[in-house]
Amino acid sequence: MSEHEIHAGDSLSSTQVQEETPETAEERDQRIRKAQRRRRLFTILPPVLLVLGILVLLYPVIATYQNNLEQQRIAKAFSAEQTNLGPDVLKDELARADEYNRQAAEAPILDPWLESQRPNTPQYSNYLSQLDVNPVMATVKVPSADISLPIYHGTETSTLEKGVGHLFGTALPVGGEGTHTVLTGHSGLGSATMFDHLNRVKVGDVFYIEVLDRHLKYKVTDIRTVLPNETESLNKVAGKDLATLITCTPYGINTHRLLVTGERVPMDNQQVAAESAKVEPAVIQTWMIAVVVGIIAVLIATAVLWGFARKNRKKREAEEAAAAEASAASGNGEEA
């Protein structure tokens, strides 16, 4: 036998000896500890991911709830603050607004969501100076759609995120024969309800506008869906006092505009409180309840599954520990 073959045989024998060397107690403990760390990681990770998922699902619910509350608080505060202005201030502001509507030049009415509706002109500055004793211009209430929101000047993006925007170029919402005011609100915002339920309104329903100490009641006479550039129905009509509520539709697609138009009807002062009390804005929406119920169901199912998994894990660990002890005892017996 050659020297090379002898060395090769020795090397093979050495490899076989290494492969057949039994696992030491220290190596066995290290292997068990590594397996336990991996199991702990896989035990902790699912609950962490579950909590993060729940927070993501709850964000629109919490944000919408808080924003709805804030918008209603602002609307109620507007009504209360009018008593602090004094009758002379209220009378003067309304007189200025009425005069503004009489003097306003006819201008093309454009889609509220066009950027061109944010002009930097003297006319727009004059518009912003009307009904400006409060950041809120007025409030609108629609009982059949659970709407009670503040109205602000203009239809800028930031404005429509906090309430209803009055469309520049249309009459101020103070009423008057031959006027037509247009109020714009979002649908489908992830953080507020706004005009989401405007599609519930039907012909014959009523809505209310409160501006300073003037209360206006409108009865819905026309509901239509139009393209963004179809604004002819927003023009003034001689001899009529009109108000239109407008939002995007279909929900989440926003290719068209939903127009709800009402004509003013009489309402004496004794009716004001009773009529306004009919408005019960829904701070909590049905979809919010559905999300919370769904989360609770997921938590219950997860708890049950986690209980089964924990029970099986403990059983498996006990079996591994017993096997390790048996292996150690066997090794000690062989050494003896």
UniProtKB/TrEMBL annotation:
Entry-linked InterPro entries: Sortase, Sortase_C, Sortase_dom-sf
Region feature Disordered, mapped onto this chain: 1-32, 317-336
Superkingdom of origin organism: Bacteria
Gene3D superfamilies reported for this sequence: Sortase
Catalytic residues as annotated in Swiss-Prot or TrEMBL: 186, 248
Transmembrane region(s): 41-62, 287-309
Regions of compositional bias (Low complexity) in chain numbering: 321-336
Iron found in the keyword field: no
Pfam family, one: Sortase
Record bears the keyword Transmembrane: yes
Single Gene Ontology MF annotation: hydrolase activity
Keyword tags: Hydrolase, Membrane, Transmembrane, Transmembrane helix
Name recorded for this polypeptide: Sortase family protein
Species per Swiss-Prot/TrEMBL record: Schaalia odontolytica
Lineage: Bacteria, Bacillati, Actinomycetota, Actinomycetes, Actinomycetales
